Amino acid sequence: MTDVDETQDPGTAQPDAAQPGVWSRTDELVARHPFVVWAWGLLRLDFTGIAFAALFFCWSLTPSLLPRDWLFQGLIGGINAAIGYGVGAAVGWAVYRYLLAGRSWWPLPPRVVQVLEIVVVAGSIVAAVVMLVYSAGWQRELAALMDAEGTTTSGYIRTGGLSLLVAAAAISLWRVLRDLVRLVARYLNRWLKVPRQAAFPLGVVLVAFLAYTLVTGVLLNGLYSIANSAFSLQNNSTRDGVTEPLNPERSGSPESLAPWDTLGFEGRNFVSRGLDAAQLSAANGAPAMEPIRVYAGLETAATTEARMDVVVDELERTGAFDRNVLVVIPTTGTGWVNPTAAEAIELVHNGDTALVAAQYSYLPSWISFIADRQKAADAGKALVDKVHERWLTKPPETRPKLYVYGESLGTQSGEGAFDSLGAIRETVDGVLWVGPPNANVLWHQLVTRRDPGTPEVAPVYADGLVVRFADSAADISQPPSPWLHPRVLYIQHPSDPVVWWSPDLLFQRPDWLSEPPGYDRLPQMRWFPVVTFWQVSADLANAAGVPDGHGHNYGTTVLDGWLAIAAPDGWTQADTDRVRGVLESVVGTQGPEK
After folding, report:
1. Which residues are in the Alpha/beta-hydrolase catalytic domain (predicted)?
2. What percentage of the chain carries pLDDT values higher than 90?
3. 151-170 mean pLDDT
4. What DSSP element (H or E) covers 294?
C-alpha cells in the first residue's frame, strides 16, 4: 500500500493518468462511492510511518514501574505506535522534500520500492513478536520482584492485536481531522475568497480551536459533571457493616454536631471503624482512652467555612484539645482516610488521640488530581488553619501535640496549608506524608534542592536535619545523624507511579531513570521520549493493586513513620512488633482508597 496523496481532497480522486481515456472499475467505484474510497484511505499507511510505529511499539514493551497485564499494555502499545507512526510520516515527508526531491535517481524503481515495503512490514512484525516474548519475561520478572502473580507468554501475545486496533483507530481519527482541515480550507477559499496559501493555515486554527473547545469545554466538563453526579450518589451510600457510632467521641453519634447522614460514604466509614477503648486495652495490655474521630462531610454544612466551624466545635465538644495527640488529616478526593494510618497512631498512643478530617469532593483521587488539585490545596489549608487557630487558644502546657498526616492526594492537600518548610516547623509538631504526587510543590522543591550526590529516588535534604525521605521502615532513620523536632517525613516507594509520574516524562529523562534503580524497580527500565510517559500513566491505574511495600501500597510502613514522628517516651521494639501484629490482623478489612 502507499499513502494517500497529501495534496488531494477526500472524495476527489481522478481516473488513472497513466492510461488516458481508460475508465477502469476502480475509477467507477471512485465516482459512485467517494465516501467508501475516503474511508479506505483512512487505513492506507506510509511505510516510513510503519517503521517508526514498530519502533515506538517495541519501546513501549520494555518494563515500567509496575507489572502490566496484556490489556493495559495493548492500550499503551497502540497509543505509542500511533504516535510513532505520526513521527515517522513527518520524518519521511521531510526527507523526501528536503533531501530526495529532484534527485536524478529518485523515485526508486517500482520493484525496489515493493521489496523495501515488504522488508519494512515483515521486519516490523518480526520485531514486534520478538519484543512481545521478551516483554512477557520482563513482566514475570517484575511481578516476582513484588511477590505478585506474573503473566504468560501466550496470553501476552494478545497485546499485539489490541495495539494494532488502537493504533488504527488513533491514526484514522487523525486523518479525519486532517481531511476536515482540508474541507474547511476549501470552503474558505470558495466562499470567502481566502487565498489558498492562507486558507489551509486558517483551517488548521479553526479545526484545532473547535477540537479544543469540544474536548475541554464540552466533553471534559460533561464527563466531570457526570462523574460528580455518579459519585455523589455513591457518597449517599454506606459500606456494608458500617453503623452509626454511639460513642460521643465520634462525629455522627447522637451527640454529634455533624449528623451521621451528612458525613458521606468515606466519612461514615472513618468514624464508625477503628478499635475502641476495650480493644485498645486488650491489644496494649493497659487501660486505654476512647479515641476521638471528628469528621465533616460535604453535606454537613453548605460552605467550606461553615464545615470548618463544625469541625472545631466538634473538637471542643469531644475534648480533643485535652488529648495527648491531635492529628489533622487532609483527605484524598472522596474524603478517604487510610484506616491503617488512623489505627496505627491510636494504637501507639493507646487511644489518647484525636483525629480530624473533612471531605471536599465527591470525586475519587485520580479525577480530583486532574480537576480539583487547587480545590484540594485550598481544602487542606482551610482545615489546618482552622484547627491550628483554635489550638493556639489553648494553654501551651496542656494542649496536645499537633501533627499533620496525608497520603496520596492528601499530601497535596496538606502541603497547601504551608508556604515553606519553615512554616511547617512554626505551625505543627511533625508531619507524615505518604506517597506524595510528583506535582506537589514543596516535595518537588526539596527533591530538586537535595544534597549533591544523593539520588532522586532516595534524596537527602540538608543532611536529613529536619526533613527526610524513606522507602521502607529500615530507611527511615537514614542518614544516621541528628534529626531535629519537629520532623517532616515523606515515605515513597521507588515503584510508586503516583510519586514519579509527570508530564516532563514526555520529553525529558528524569534523574531517577539515569540513576541506579531502587529496590523494587527493574534495571531494564529505560527512558524513551513520549513512550515512558504513557507507560507510567498506565502504571497509575494499577498503583495500589500490588502487594504491600510496592507501588502505591504502603501497608504498615505508616506505623514506622508515626514512630519516627510521634513515638511516646519509652517506646521499644517489642511495642512496635506488638502493634504491627494488630495492624496486620485488620489490614484489608476496611476497604481500599476511593
Report:
1. 292-579
2. 67
3. 91
4. strand 292-296
Instruction: Give residue 16's pLDDT.
Output: 41
**What are the φ/ψ torsions at residue 593 (nearest 5 degrees)?**
-60, 145
Residues in the chain: 594
Q: How far apart are CA 107 and CA 119, in angstroms?
A: 18
Please report the sign of the dihedral spanned by the C-alpha atoms of residue 61, residue 64, residue 69, residue 75.
negative
Going by C-alpha positions, the residue among 439, 440, 465, 450 that lies closest to residue 511 is: 450
The rounded distance, in Å, linking the Cα atoms of 288 and 278 is 7
Which residue's C-alpha cell is 494499577? 542
Q: What order of strands is seen across the sheet that includes strand 430-434?
A: 292-296, 353-358, 325-330, 401-407, 430-434, 487-491, 467-470
What 8-state DSSP symbol labels residue 13? -
* Start-to-end Cα distance in the chain: 49
**Which residues lie below 8 Å from residue 276, measured CB to CB, with a gap of 6+?**
247, 290, 291
- How far apart CA 298 and CA 263 sit, in angstroms, is 7
Distance (Å, rounded) from C-alpha 470 to C-alpha 474? Answer: 8
- Per-residue pLDDT of 203-230, as tens digits, reads 888 888 887 777 666 555 666 566 656 6
Backbone angles phi, psi at 153, to 5 degrees: -65, -45
For residue 569 the three cell numbers come to: 517516651
- Residue 106 has φ and ψ, to the nearest 5°, of -115, 140
Residue 353: strand, helix, or coil: strand
Alpha-carbon gap, residue 504 to 269, rounded angstroms:
37
pLDDT of residue 297: 95
- Hey, how many other C-beta atoms are within 10 angstroms of the C-beta on 22? 9
Q: Is 32 left (phi over 0), alpha (psi -120 to 50) or beta?
A: alpha
Higher pLDDT, 461 or 365: 461
Look at 1 and 317; give whichever has higher pLDDT.
317
Q: 300-334 in b/e burial notation, b at 16+ Cβ within 10 A?
A: bbeebeebbebbbebbebbebbebebbbbbbbbbb
- Which triple of cell numbers denotes residue 4? 494517500
What would you report as the CA-atom Rg of the chain, rounded to the nearest whole angstrom?
30
Strand partners, 250: 293
238 C-beta neighbours (distance < 10 Å), count: 16
Mean pLDDT across the chain: 88
pLDDT at 353: 98
234 pLDDT above the threshold of 60: yes
Separation of alpha carbons 294 and 528, rounded Å: 47
